[in-house]
Amino acid sequence: MPQKSLLSSPDIEINPQLEFDAEHEAPPAISLVIPVYNERESVQALYQQICASMEQVGETFEIIFVDDGSSDGSFKVLKALHAADPRVCVIRFRRNFGKSPALLAGFNRARGQIIFTMDADLQDDPAEIPQFLEQIEEGYDLVSGWKYPRLDPPSKTLPSKVFNTIVGMTTGVKLHDMNCGFKAYRRELIEELKLYGELHRFIPVMARWRGFSITEIKVKHHPRQFGKSKFGAKRFLRGFLDLLTVLFLTSYMRTPLRLFGAVGIVSFLIGFVIDAWVVLNRIYTNDPIHNHPILFLGLVLMIVGVQLVLSGLQSEMIRHFNFNSRDEYSVKQVLD
Description:
The protein is α/β, with parallel strands linked by helices. It is built from eleven helices and seven strands. The chain has helices at 2-7, 43-57, 74-84, 99-109, 129-137, 154-171, 187-192, 203-209, 233-252, 256-285, 294-321; strands at 30-36, 61-67, 88-92, 114-117, 142-147, 183-186, 214-219.
């Protein structure tokens, strides 16, 4: 029996009071999507904490672990959990693809009407799940956690504060912890998300842009017990590059010519004014043009301006031929 093989493993412990029905096919009420990357020591304890919390909630659930190319034996532990509990699903990537693809794979597999995400490092506390559900019941579509107080070193907290401030100023979505992995979503929001690259950091921004309601709640935060953090300077830099992507997608995706055209026209006009001044100066003062190297700056600005306008027109044509009406709006309810 699968449960027997799991209990016989010296590395795994399962609550013997849990009883599972492998034949049960009804969709669960809640899905928990958990990306895993080299968290072998943590996943079993996290599983047990989730089960304990969900027993108090009293709703059916499933746990979807996405092994994002772990090399420390995490998959072996996850495989044993799946063998003992049919509510556990494991998706294994061939290599490390990143958090956004891992979340997307989990979302595509999730069957629940409410979907949770959390990290696998035991820093998120599953005991907070009821608090998220209360906010969902109040009508919010996305509930984002705010790790308070945050028990991370300054090398993580300071860049995070700067990042959250900049995102709030540029997008209008002001959260204390934009990138907190502990979130709860309504299913309809998940079905409209388009995640790639590392855009998981900006899910609240994309959700607000689509018209979904979001809120933030304080959640307990625990210091890391095992392994090491995956945060680094590259991740911080990529976050700002992805911010530019999100700003473009949420502001000019439907009308790219408004961005490229506006910048292009301004560039062309500045270049035209510069070159016109040089030419008029030559006519009225007889001052040789070669005495004004700024002429070349004007020419460059005019050329760049034309290229930007053409790029905007080209983007409009691409958008026209790839038009999908479902991307233009988000329907909350239909009354027939």
